[in-house]
Amino acid sequence: xxxxxxxxxxxxxxxxxxxxxxxxxxxxxxxxxxxxxxxxxxxxxxxxxxxxxxxxxxxxxxxxxxxxxxxxxxxxxxxxxxxxxxxxxxxxxxxxxxxxxxxxxxxxxxxxxxxxxxxxxxxxxxxxxxxxxxxxxxxxxxxxxxxxxxxxxxxxxxxxxxxxxxxxxxxxxxxxxxxxxxxxxxxxxxxxxxxxxxxxxxxxxxxxxxxxxxxxx
Length: 217
Known about the structure:
Blueprint: H1 12-28, E1 31-35, E2 37-42, E3 54-63, E4 67-73, E5 76-85, E6 92-99, H2 101-108, E7 112-124, H3 132-136, H4 139-146, E8 151-157, E9 165-170, H5 174-179, E10 186-189, H6 198-201
Antiparallel strand pairs: 1-6, 2-9, 2-10, 3-4, 3-7, 4-5, 5-6, 7-8, 8-9
């Protein structure tokens, strides 16, 4: 069941989005999970970036806090509601509901502020991501790494943030997130820093501080 946000504090497009999710959850096969991820700025791009598979993403935000967005990922469309952090960890409850193209194109016209456009490269997790001892005691995690279920997602942004690059790694649980050793080409960790959330970046006057990597991708 969707945690009840306060619709009265939202603009009409955001309130409409929440109502659509609630009314169509079962019909459209919505999914719910807890997103446990870490975010990093990037010191340098990994070698052979153009050889990795990627998704082309466009998304608009109907509300920033809580985050309600509509996204096109290649030819797949969906709406997402992100709740607050759960307890003391970094996990956030996330609800996704599939959309068809027509619904997406209708809802995205109601988005405020900056549209977020980026390429998301799917890169194997760094080999030294976990200590040998940790991997010995967590064979299930090793299998997930081998099957690409845990990986680095490198976002290369287009206008109005062209030149900005950020890496994310999503984990199966809080323990794995805490044990993770960042890749050598990562820069500062910015997990939990709202300035680097895509929702915050959608705000009209959002500015980024930190590493902005010039690149050709």
